[in-house]
Model the fold of this input.
Amino acid sequence: MSISIQNVSKKFGAFQALHNVNLEVPSGSLTALLGPSGSGKTTLLRIVAGLESVDEETGGQILFDGVPVTGNPVNRRQVGFVFQHYALFRHMTVFENIAFGLRVKPRAERLSGPAINERVNELLRLVQLEQLAKRFPSQLSGGQRQRIALARALAIQPKVLLLDEPFGALDAQVRSELRRWLRHLHDTIHVTSIFVTHDQEEALEVADSIVVMNKGQVEQVGAPNEVFQNPATEFVMKFLGEVNVFHGRLHNDTPVFTDELKDADGVRLLVRPHDLAVRLRPGPGVSLPAQVYRVLTAGPLVKIELLNSQNNLVQVHVPHDVYLAMPVKSGQEVYLVPKESRLYGNGNERIEYVI
Amino acid sequence: MKQSEKQADSFWGNFALSAAALMIVGLLVVLPLLVVLKEAFAGGVRVWLASVSDPDARSAVWLTLGVAAAVVPLNTVFGVAAAWALAKFRFKGRSLLLSLVDLPFAVSPVVAGLIFILVFGRHGWLGAWLTDHHLRVVFAVPGILLATLFVTFPFVARELIPLMTEQGSEEEQAALSLGATGWQTFLKVTLPNIKWGLLYGIILCNARAMGEFGAVSVVSGHIRGETNTLPLHIEVLYNEYRFTASFACASLLAGLAVVTLILKTVVELKSARDAA
Done:
């Protein structure tokens, strides 16, 4: 089932949570809504679910397979919703939690008792927690609770599955395990899914498609690789990983980096820590002088911290073998050469340039 | 200071505080209760039985039970509705409603009674209309019901608002997203989550409904055998110097208090066990 979001705006009092959002989610895909807190990603998800209404003045619409569902309340939208804090029914066993959606159906549509049991057991097998059927939510770990919440949402055979920061409340190890598991689950059942996250690594690892949101608007939509390699805006570049910023200005379509402070027609060169090379001598093209401040060799990559001519901290990540071929000491004067970089002007849009 | 001295200090401190607390409770709570029982049975069990089964006493007991039977369910419904609205939703006028729920606690019961006289009394706002339609509110059972309803309104709501606020509304949202109707969500999710708090509120509401004196005293008119509730009946007997009869009836209310305490403790234990 495809989801279509058209001209959706939402105000909470004076706060504009969503600003004319348009988005197409293809059928069967797993899409991540990625953004910092306050970017409107959860509000958008709740609007798709019907837990929040669309502001009517702008004529916003939500369509499932081309059919408007904007007027349908949440209990008639047939969406599976998974909450960050699980929201399991605390007075019911795991079994009854999963059976809930099947038991509240009108009598004409309701499955028979044995059929419900069978369906619940099937779902327990799917989330690999059959042995916990008789437990209460308070007796489960966070990861187990979230899997039960997912099984409960899937019980009603939802048209779409919506997950609000599903791994946000879990510790790092369980989180990465569940991520892989969610991807695997999606590959098994193919239900159109949207999940909200503020963790770029999670989005890059799990999703087919990433929607980067900022201040109630969509900044970029694309496959993980595309969003990471070709960030459309400075915001996307900064949000998708660590980044070094060099201030300069354009001179004959070529960026010049001097000691001057940022000015009106200034530009910013954004380089990821692993895209900077450390050289002892300036090369042709852009090479920026810097002084080594600290070298951290513990870890999978060597992290070199430097101070550039504007006295800003610059991070460089190099593999151990590269570092060993040319080690540096703190206090040493070096030159930084960007291998891969992006240039942004004041318009936030990316500028093409040659070095 | 040495360790042993410190411990000795804290021992005497604890002892003094505990002794003071016990003395206060004994003096203000246990002793009066014992006095009530002693006075009630001063003439023996037979006199007690005769006092309690006197027609006026019996009518007072029935009136009190009847008022409680009518008021407690109503205030349970009002209380749940008010708590639901106040805890689960944010809307204009919410803080005003929150203060209004507390109003009966803030207003002296006598003043509450007088308000009803002003509104429904013969010279009150609705007095002429009520007289024209041969309806009696003040100095009759409806007035007693209204006054008790007013005074006991906050008990259930006050018990539930913090509980429901803390529980949030995510479970309800989950139930709705699973296709449940609003009513199913209330019965299967909200109600089981608040049952112990609700029961606690009902017990307190019932105790107050049966024991209310001030407001009811103003609106009842003290018509013996008709509009005297048990607390009013006790006062009438006492003012007539019929101490034994008065204490006999008081022992009934004291018994209610003890039952209430036991129920309250049971509910607290159960809810603590559920929470664990």
Summary: The interface with chain A takes residues 170-171, 173-181, 184, 188-189, 192-193, 274 of chain B (CB under 8 Å). The radius of gyration of chain B is 23 Å.
